[in-house]
Design brief:
The protein is an alpha/beta fold and about 475 residues long. Helices cover about 20% and strands about 40% of the residues. The protein has a domain at about 70-305: Pectate Lyase C-like, CATH 2.160.20.10. It has a 25-stranded mixed sheet that branches. Helix 1 (about 1-25) packs antiparallel against helix 2. The chain starts with a helix and ends with a strand.
Length: about 475
Amino acid sequence: MTDLLKRKSIKTLGLLSAGVSLLTVSGCHTLPLSSQSNLADSAKDAEDLVKWQQADQIIAAIKPTQFAAQEFVITAFGAKAEAGNDNTQAIKAAIAACAAAGGGRVIVPAGRFETGAIHLKSNVNLHLHDDAVLSFYTDREHYLPYVMTRWEGVELIGYSPLIYAFQQENIAVTGKGILEGNGSTTAWWPWKGNWERRNWEYDASVDQVQTRKVLFAMAEQGAPVAERQFTENFLRPPFIQPYGCKRVLIEGVTIRNSPFWLINPVLSEDVVIRNVNCVSHGPNSDGCNPESSNRVLIENCLFDTGDDCIALKSGRNNDGRRLATPVQNIVIQDCIMRSGHGGVVMGSEISGGARNIFARRCRMSSPNLARGIRIKTNSVRGGLIENVYIRDIEIGEVRDAIVINFFYEEGDAGNFMPQVNNLHISNLTVQKAQRAFQLRGFERAPISGVTLHHVHFKQVETVGILENIAGIDQLDITLNGKPFSI
């Protein structure tokens, strides 16, 4: 595919070069303005095609996982698919035995197995049978002792994620089974607190704000991470979190009813997330949130979530700037987004920056999809977002199609200007939207560096919000069947 794209690009650029050369040498004729414009537009499209070769190069550079051809079935270590049977220790023993033997697959056979936190080790593939369910407990004791983790972009010593790995290499969660988090109106989700969309009885004694405010204040003050741990902790753990890991594969599984974010690679590299179904409608049920990670491929996944479907992040405020590690070299392709706060999203914890992001051939649609393409930040977060390429996206129904919002949460209340450079959106079709745009820059830091080519809004109620935009490279934009220019 890369060679084919390269040949097409070289051919197009060669023809353009030859055409310009002929005009220069002859000196006899000048093309009409419309022809000159078409020539320039073709040059832009050819340049865009060359840029997209980088996506294939990123995929080719990802180091794949490989596992020894040996299996360790959890039932051989005492696991039982019986209600009330705690399989945490049996699964731990199977993983330890697999790792000690040089790696392989830890098999979860057919049946429903109840468990607490699972910690993966290097060279271990946790593989679920087609009819297997790992059902996770909802009491906090099963996620102790505390581990090094990250919560909403801030490092702390907190509850173990449901599936966790710390500084491991060559790990995987695969198979067609189900990972059931058991988040509900009575378990995990009420810790969100007095949420505007809550459908549970509010209990102030377990409101996450008690821990969240203190954690964020400690991070802003530069408190050492080792001191950021709390006896009374109401920060829900993410479902799957590889932390500081290399060569990670998550493939085939269905993830349901997560306490918090579903898939959250942090400070990891060479990550592949493929053919995964993310179905969770609780608060902060983001589908896949790579944080400060490098070389990540997300493909052929389904997202039906209670928050952003995919959100690229790099740390919150002072903590993100302390680590100064961008999320970079990300390819998102052939995914389906249904319900969610956003389809492909960058932010809001983006203080470490984002660069070299590619999203293509995705389909989004739902009456409950709030936004399609979304960037959210502010002058407290800051962050440089650059070299973002989005193309061949089909949106059926959405509230706001394209969002760049510098006023997220705190708004213009800090000294770290958000910046967007080289954001290219092309071949985007939106069938139905309430608003085409929500573009809100600062007067002192307007939105710039954005290219919109071949963007068509078929049925839109209103243009939307356009505030403080320095300039957008526009080509072939239509709104309700008519040419449109910002």
